[in-house]
From TrEMBL:
Record Gene3D superfamilies: 1.20.1050.10, Glutaredoxin (3.40.30.10)
Organism in which the protein naturally occurs: Salinomyces thailandicus
Pfam family, one: GST_C_3
CDD domains (UniProt xref): GST_C_Sigma_like
Domain GST C-terminal: 114-266
PROSITE patterns: GST_CTER, GST_NTER
GO molecular function list: glutathione transferase activity
GO terms (BP aspect): glutathione metabolic process
Domain of life: Eukaryota
Domain GST N-terminal: 14-112
Protein name: Glutathione S-transferase
Length: 269
């Protein structure tokens, strides 16, 4: 991993993750980055009494400000960074998962130092998050506000397309990137960009893991097509310092009714 931006700076602000309680969801991409970097943070809704009302006040209000002079937030996740606001005293609040990852990448040393690689990391995270969104649409293809049961027929069609054409296309891209980096960047088949863990790895890993929960049969069948991705990469990230401890801790929340849901009828039959 790269060193945090200011090499002299050994302490970090107490980062606050503002997200829904009880589900991994998009908050998980932020948790994994922080956990892999070994940087402490507060998971406000899960750890603080009345934490979710704080999240709601900041991220789900209809006003012209989120808090501390920051512009409104569209939806969780958001990151609150005490002391990092415009005036250098108040808190900075930013949202959009890839935006938060881009911010944290440099600050906590989980992005490469050279400019080209920084954008390659972001490109991978954005692509993994595209797949995350498509998987969400497998159970909500018509309307976010409708129940799955009210859009089941369309879900069956959408899930079939995601499994048969989209998942292999994304997996092929991640696998080809691993191969490219093995040849040119010292990735050893374990890292997508460069020779150490970045938030591209944690983000792609989380989407792979989520897809294994949502579509276990489909993903099992794909393993032999992408042995590098399911092997050295997937297993390697799981074993990474910080992540190994986190993944076996109770902070790692179980998949349930978030983006990654397991409806057997949507999986390969
Ligand atoms: N593109 C946004 C999507 C954020 C999002 O969809 N958040 C969900 C929870 S994972 C939410 O609460 N959405 C409420 C809404 O969109 O109305 C991101 O990546 O952060």
């Amino acid at each position: 991993m790269a060193q945090p931006s200011s090499k002299k700076q050994r302490t970090h602000p107490q980062y606050e993750l503002l997200y829904h309680p009880g589900i991994p969801g998009r908050g998980e991409f932020i948790r994994l980055a922080l956990e892999a970097a070994g940087v402490p943070y507060t998971d406000t809704a899960n750890e603080q009494k009345d934490g979710y009302s704080t999240v709601q006040k900041i991220c789900m209000n209809t006003g012209t400000e989120s808090a501390d002079g920051n512009p409104p937030v569209f939806s969780p996740p958001a990151l609150r960074v005490p002391g990092a606001g415009k005036d250098g005293k108040s808190a900075l609040i930013i949202s959009q998962t890839p935006n938060i990852l881009f911010y944290l990448g440099e600050k906590i040393g989980i992005a490469p130092e050279d400019e080209a690689s920084k954008y390659h990391v972001q490109q991978l995270a954005l692509t993994a998050l595209d797949l995350n969104n498509e998987v969400h649409d497998s159970h909500h293809p018509i309307a976010v506000m409708l129940y799955y049961e009210d859009q089941k027929e369309e879900s069956l069609k959408k899930a079939k397309d995601i499994r048969e054409s989209r998942i292999p296309k994304f997996l092929s891209y991640f696998s080809r990137t691993l191969q490219h980096n093995e040849k040119t960047g010292g990735g050893q088949g374990k890292y997508l960009v460069g020779d150490s863990l970045t938030y591209a790895d944690t983000t792609v890993w989380q989407v792979l893991d989520g897809c294994m929960f949502a579509f276990p049969k489909e993903m099992q069948a794909r393993k032999s097509e992408f042995p590098d991705l399911f092997g050295a990469f997937y297993e390697g990230v799981k074993e990474h310092k910080g992540l190994k401890e986190y993944l076996s801790s109770e902070r790692r929340l179980a998949y349930s009714m978030g983006v990654f849901r397991h409806y057997p009828e949507l999986d390969r039959q």
